[in-house]
Known about the structure:
Elements: E1 3-6, H1 13-22, E2 25-28, H2 30-47, H3 73-84, E3 88-91, H4 94-108, H5 117-128, E4 132-133, E5 136-138, H6 147-157, E6 162-164, E7 170-172, H7 173-179, H8 191-196, H9 200-230, H10 240-244, H11 249-262, H12 283-286, H13 288-310, E8 318-320, E9 325-327, H14 335-363, H15 386-402, H16 424-454, H17 463-474, H18 486-498, H19 501-510
Parallel strand pairs: 1-2
Antiparallel strand pairs: 3-5, 4-6, 6-7, 8-9
Helix pairs in contact: 1-4, 3-6, 4-5, 4-9, 9-11, 9-13, 9-14, 9-16, 11-13, 13-14, 14-15, 14-16, 15-16, 16-18, 17-19
Amino acid sequence: MHTVVVGTSGTSSADVVAVARHGARVEISPEADAALAAARSVVDALAAKPEPVYGVSTGFGALATRHIGPGLRAALQRNIVRSHAAGMGPRVEREVVRALMFLRLKTLCSGHTGVRPGIARTMAAVLNAGITPVVHEYGSLGCSGDLAPLSHCALALMGEGDAEGPDGQVRPAGELLAAHGIAPVELREKEGLALLNGTDGMLGMLLLALDDLRRLYTSADITAALSLEALLGTDRVLAPELHAIRPHPGQAVAAANMAAVLKGSGLTGHYQQDDAPRVQDAYSVRCAPQVAGAGRDTVDHARLVAERELAAAVDNPVVLPAEGRVESNGNFHGAPVAYVLDFLAVAAADLGSIAERRTDRLLDKNRSHGLPPFLADDPGVDSGLMIAQYTQAALVSEMKRLAVPASVDSIPSSAMQEDHVSMGWSAARKLRTAVDALGRIIAVELYTAARAIELRDGLTPAPASAAAVAALRAAGVAGPGPDRFLAPDLAAAAEFVRDGSLIAAVEPVTGPLG
């Protein structure tokens, strides 16, 4: 099994995905162990002084004015975890919880949080045991960190609350820790606060979304090419010299992907041979690289923000070991992450929208250039893919609602001490829903375009297109014929897109796609 080593200088998006989705083991480097110990010595020294230090010997938030004596500090740290574990609603997905735990561990290991090395080792042990704390949908405002979600994780480290075991069963966290030989942690000065105060949940969901969108944008280029082909469109608009004069990098990649898929097609170039010759294809076909390319560039910008956040140590207060100081700061504010989460939801919605327009064009006999209505076997007796487009349209409409930004909202909290929040967690939650919807929308276009290509009797599709259609059929998705129960076919097509099978079917013919 792959092992991820956590050091002091952050981690990579690939490591986060490996731990969150694929169960990679986690190890703490000797360098990180030393940094943890050095930062802790600063906290211990400050804790021994009579002067109050926020997070070490004071209350929290609006209660920071109270000085807490040594005898109550362990209770203070326990209490912040218990009281902040106030989430409600459905459980958050296992991969998201693992991502946020791993990212919090990454920050602990930076040497700027002041927790003891044993706290970090316990968190790594919980991840490696496959124990996943139960975290709930609601509870984070995306400022002062993803407080409630991280609190539920910290609660499990204390042996309290509920968690899911590696067998998928939810049990009391204390029982699961004991079953795996993990001793619950006993928190000391600053440690409870350090476990809660980060953008780890929203960042984890951003990284998972970027992993998904990388595949979905390539898949959308493939389905756009198939639709162009099925509509007997022209691939001349994909010429690289046309895209070089508008030098957006994502646009060039999308056009090159489509051109690679269409190479050798016997269907393209017939656009002037209809009863009503076309001078040019509709926008949804002709402008596919521009729309998908703009989305790609948005993804690249979001990835840049994510990489910066991966290199950050987000906590408040933060330990500066070289100066021997602990300082309050505002680095926990989720605005940088929240903005790109919202931006990605906008880009994804537009990609879904243009894909649906191509699907609708394939099903309309007045615009499909010779295809039967709704690609039905016996139109009138059969409805064909009419309602598949309804489903796709419903998903597009949902994505448009999800594209409304969360980060422009703010609800003051903590008696107006925390009077401006990012809502980044909410932006991340809706992006996950949007990404799932986008995969389904692309699947409906794939299903429709594949059937339309097969109905073009006497014309030979591109080798890459033929490979895509053959692989889809091998996956159990039926081709043209009388009406059948569509939902299972659509579900199978969605999985075919989601797991990368569409790309895997095409790339042996095209070579690697961007």
